[in-house]
Amino acid sequence: MADEIPLRGGVAIPRSELSWRFSRSSGPGGQSVNTADSRVELRWDLASSGALPRVLRERALERLAGRLVDGVLIVTAQEHREQLRNRRAAEARLVALVTAAIAPGPPARRPTRPSRGAVQRRLDAKRTRSVTKQLRARPEH
């Protein structure tokens, strides 16, 4: 295993900043199932990490605010029976979350005006709808 987990643009998370916790996985099974600690909980202290540049760290903290517990990002995996595969799944989830969080935002929207044809179609649709609703009214005596 490498010393770092690569993200994007040459940014990587050092494995020394990750902490692992293992426990028994929940779920269906028969006799003697899940006697090994196959559930994996991966923790990364994003708030105090030196792995990301300041701008990217602030962006990630803002975008992942709902998932953080005191600045720590927690990812769990328990879908596989083997602990090693769950470790890989947790790392893959961590990479996907952080990569999406540090990605630059969409370009700013340049406001445009609707075309004359679009305005005319909208007004025609409003007129048609108005007539339809007027026909539903009770006739006056």
TrEMBL record:
Keyword Hydrolase: yes
Species for this entry: Virgisporangium ochraceum
Protein name per UniProt: Aminoacyl-tRNA hydrolase
Pfam families for this protein: RF-1
Gene3D superfamilies assigned: 3.30.160.20
Gene Ontology MF terms in the entry: peptidyl-tRNA hydrolase activity; ribosome binding; translation release factor activity
InterPro entries linked to this entry: Pep_chain_release_fac_I
Prokaryotic-type class I peptide chain release factors domain: residues covered: 11-134
Disordered: annotated span: 104-141
UniProt keywords, alphabetically: Hydrolase
GO biological process: rescue of stalled ribosome
